[in-house]
């Protein structure tokens, strides 16, 4: 038997964006614990905006477990928040009731800024801006990426891979101090669990560098020539991958247009600051799609058109603070309205 450090991690009740919370318990196991071996646990919901003070206990239900490579005998345990009965999902639990389909594949491109002392890494401390955007995207060299960002993003990648998170890549982004990682998963919950866990690992890693992760979609404001942060959501269902066809694609896009407001409602807060029609975005109140068009709401890859309209599509509207559970669910909900015949 060995003592395992189990970090139970959950989403709190803050709106419009939940924070990640975590606390550790120690349990003995013969080997790295399986999900079904992990017990439920409780926490004080009155300190996380999830309960009133008088009846404050909420329950944590483990739903996914990942090795924690920063310690020996340690696990990161993604949890859903349940009511005190342990059975009813808490209203803040966005995972419990979503549309899921194990045959739906998602690739999330999480963009974010690394911040220190209130400004993006590499911005002058006293105010003002570094040289304009141009060389930062996929850039190299101190003047483009600074001194510590590379160590952070490379370490993050190692920790996530060691945890079994299915990273597909990382890159420096268009703004100084802005970065991206991509995660691919099968099924809404599987893919979204990994995004939340990767966010957690990034936040925790950055503590020792005195760096904060700014997930806001337009941290530098709307009126400057600096990019915002998205979480482009690439998706495909079995039908899209195996049957596809132009008529089905057009019907799908019609449904996406019809439900555009419902999509925007779960695509992250303050998205009107980001979806302006500039900086590789479409305006928030319009829906369009385009082949290889990075100014469209949905980008259709060349590979999709060249393959008889089979494959995946990229919804470019979700932002960096969006909840991937809700985003994946909404995409599947809209797809479900389109007959496959
Ligand atoms: P770009 O920056 O050009 O938009 P990225 O390479 O950053 O592209 O992201 C593309 C994403 O598409 C990857 O995260 C990948 O996992 C995802 N993807 C690839 N194939 C599929 C598929 N069949 N279904 C869903 N997502 C997919
Ligand atoms: Mn956040
Ligand atoms: Mn990308
Ligand atoms: Mn990007
Ligand atoms: Mn993209």
UniProtKB/TrEMBL annotation:
- GO CC term, one of those recorded: cytoplasm
Q: Which family does it belong to?
A: Belongs to the glutamine synthetase family.
Domain named GS beta-grasp: residues: 4-86
The protein's location, in the record's own words, is: Cytoplasm
SUPFAM superfamilies documented for this protein: Glutamine synthetase, N-terminal domain, Glutamine synthetase/guanido kinase
Q: How does it assemble?
A: Homooctamer and homotetramer.
Record-listed E.C. numbers? 6.3.1.2
User: Which InterPro entries does the record cross-reference, listed alphabetically?
Assistant: Gln_synt_N (IPR008147), Gln_synt_N_sf (IPR036651), Gln_synth/guanido_kin_cat_dom (IPR014746), Gln_synth_cat_dom (IPR008146), Gln_synth_N_conserv_site (IPR027302), Glutamine_Synthetase (IPR050292)
One GO biological process term? glutamine biosynthetic process
| Biological role | Catalyzes the ATP-dependent biosynthesis of glutamine from glutamate and ammonia.
Query: What's the chief localization of this chain?
Result: cytoplasm
Every GS catalytic domain range: 89-341
Q: Which UniProt keywords apply?
A: ATP-binding, Cytoplasm, Ligase, Nucleotide-binding
What is the top EC class of this enzyme, as a single word?
A: ligase
A GO molecular function term, named singly, is:
glutamine synthetase activity
List the catalytic activities from the record.
L-glutamate + NH4(+) + ATP = L-glutamine + ADP + phosphate + H(+)
Natural source organism: Chthoniobacter flavus Ellin428
Q: What is this protein called?
A: glutamine synthetase
């Amino acid at each position: 038997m060995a003592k395992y450090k189990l970090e139970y991690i959950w989403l709190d009740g803050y709106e419009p964006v939940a924070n990640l919370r975590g606390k550790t318990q120690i349990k003995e196991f013969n080997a790295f614990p399986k999900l079904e071996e992990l017990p439920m646990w409780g926490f004080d919901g009155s300190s996380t905006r999830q309960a009133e003070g008088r009846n404050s206990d909420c329950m944590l239900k483990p739903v996914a477990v990942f090795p924690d490579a920063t310690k020996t005998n340690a696990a990161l345990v993604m949890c859903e928040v349940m009511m005190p009965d342990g059975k009813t999902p808490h209203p803040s639990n966005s995972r419990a009731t979503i549309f899921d389909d194990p045959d739906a594949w998602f690739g999330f491109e999480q963009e974010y800024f690394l911040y220190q002392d209130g400004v993006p890494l590499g911005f002058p401390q006293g105010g003002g801006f570094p040289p304009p955007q141009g060389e930062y995207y996929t850039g190299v060299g101190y003047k483009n990426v600074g001194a510590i960002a590379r160590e952070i993003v490379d370490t993050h990648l190692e920790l996530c891979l060691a945890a079994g998170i299915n990273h597909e890549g990382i890159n420096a982004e268009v703004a100084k101090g802005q970065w991206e990682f991509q995660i691919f998963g099968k099924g809404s919950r599987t893919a979204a669990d990994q995004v939340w866990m990767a966010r957690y690992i990034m936040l925790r890693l950055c503590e020792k560098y005195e760096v904060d992760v700014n997930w806001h979609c337009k941290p530098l404001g709307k009126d400057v020539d600096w990019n915002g942060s998205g979480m482009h959501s690439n998706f495909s269902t079995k039908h899209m991958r195996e049957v596809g066809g132009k008529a089905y694609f057009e019907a799908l896009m019609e449904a996406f247009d019809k439900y555009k407001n419902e999509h925007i409602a779960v695509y992250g807060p303050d998205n009107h600051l980001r979806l302006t029609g500039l900086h590789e975005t479409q305006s928030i109140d319009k829906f369009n799609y385009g082949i290889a068009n990075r100014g469209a709401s949905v980008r259709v890859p060349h590979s999709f058109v060249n393959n008889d309209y089979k494959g995946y599509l990229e919804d470019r509207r979700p932002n960096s603070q969006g909840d991937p559970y809700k985003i994946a669910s909404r995409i599947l909900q809209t797809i479900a309205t389109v007959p496959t015949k």
